[in-house]
Specification:
With 106 residues, this protein is an all-alpha fold. 78% of the residues lie in helices and 0% in strands. The chain contains four helices and no strands. The longest helix is centred in the C-terminal third of the chain and has 31 residues. The N and C termini lie far apart (82 Å).
């Protein structure tokens, strides 16, 4: 089993490395990167459901339920954010106002 300090060290290194990598991503590649991370969140959700299915004690079931709940919220929220970001890249269609329509008809 991994010692607590070693696990904390690995977590800190992963957080720093992840921040450095993500901060260097150009804006154009941000949306595809988000889509990829949503896919990973889906895999995490499946893993949480499997872990919940194998839970024996009440504490394990509570932690499993929390993991499934947070994983589902994270995946769903990621798709909502990605959809909103993709909306920014769609061309906008100008709507004619009622005054412009009246002028064009005369």
């Amino acid at each position: 089993m991994i010692d607590g300090f070693i696990a904390l060290y690995i977590f800190a290194l992963a957080a720093i490395l992840g921040f450095e990598i993500i901060s260097k991503v150009p804006v154009v590649l941000h949306t595809p990167l988000m889509s990829g991370s949503n896919f990973i969140h889906g895999i995490v959700l499946v893993g949480a459901m499997i872990a919940l299915g194998h839970a024996d004690t009440t504490l394990e079931k509570v932690f499993g339920f929390i993991a499934v709940f947070l994983g589902a919220g994270n995946a769903a929220g990621g798709y909502v954010v990605t959809e909103r970001m993709l909306e920014m890249f769609k061309p906008r269609v100008k709507k004619e106002t009622s005054q412009e329509q009246n002028k064009g008809g005369k």
